[in-house]
TrEMBL record:
<dbReference type="GO" id="GO:0031369">
    <property type="term" value="F:translation initiation factor binding"/>
</dbReference>
<dbReference type="InterPro" id="IPR045113">
    <property type="entry name" value="Rpb7-like"/>
</dbReference>
<protein>
    <recommendedName>
        <fullName>DNA-directed RNA polymerase subunit</fullName>
    </recommendedName>
</protein>
<dbReference type="InterPro" id="IPR012340">
    <property type="entry name" value="NA-bd_OB-fold"/>
</dbReference>
<dbReference type="GO" id="GO:0006367">
    <property type="term" value="P:transcription initiation at RNA polymerase II promoter"/>
</dbReference>
<dbReference type="GO" id="GO:0003727">
    <property type="term" value="F:single-stranded RNA binding"/>
</dbReference>
<dbReference type="InterPro" id="IPR036898">
    <property type="entry name" value="RNA_pol_Rpb7-like_N_sf"/>
</dbReference>
<dbReference type="GO" id="GO:0045948">
    <property type="term" value="P:positive regulation of translational initiation"/>
</dbReference>
<dbReference type="GO" id="GO:0003697">
    <property type="term" value="F:single-stranded DNA binding"/>
</dbReference>
<dbReference type="GO" id="GO:0000932">
    <property type="term" value="C:P-body"/>
</dbReference>
<keyword id="KW-0804">Transcription</keyword>
<keyword id="KW-0240">DNA-directed RNA polymerase</keyword>
<keyword id="KW-0539">Nucleus</keyword>
<dbReference type="GO" id="GO:0060213">
    <property type="term" value="P:positive regulation of nuclear-transcribed mRNA poly(A) tail shortening"/>
</dbReference>
<comment type="function">
    <text>DNA-dependent RNA polymerase which catalyzes the transcription of DNA into RNA using the four ribonucleoside triphosphates as substrates.</text>
</comment>
<dbReference type="GO" id="GO:0005665">
    <property type="term" value="C:RNA polymerase II, core complex"/>
</dbReference>
Amino acid sequence: CSGTYGYTILVTHLKSYGKGLFNVDTGWAHFPVKYLALVFRPFRNEVLPAEVFAVNQSGVFARAGPLEIFVSQLCMPPDMQFDSGSESPAFVSADQELRI
C-alpha cells in the first residue's frame, strides 16, 4: 500500500515496460513499468462497507478488502454500550435496535 496511490487491486492495461536490472544483493530483477490499474485508496472519515471480525470492550475490528479497521468505543455514539453477556460480544444501543 502506498499512502499516495493506495492498494493496487487489478492491473487493467500494460502501457509500457523497459529493460530490467538485476540486484546482485537481493537476487531481484527491477523493471520500469507503466500501467493503468484499479486501486483502493480509502480516505480518513470515509464510510466503507466492512466485515466485523472481532469486538472487545475497546472497540470493533473490521476488514474492508485488504484494509483492517479499528473503531474505538470513544468514536461510537454515547448510547452504544459494550455487552459481553450475550453469545458473542457486541456493542448494543440503549433501545436494542443497533447491534455491532
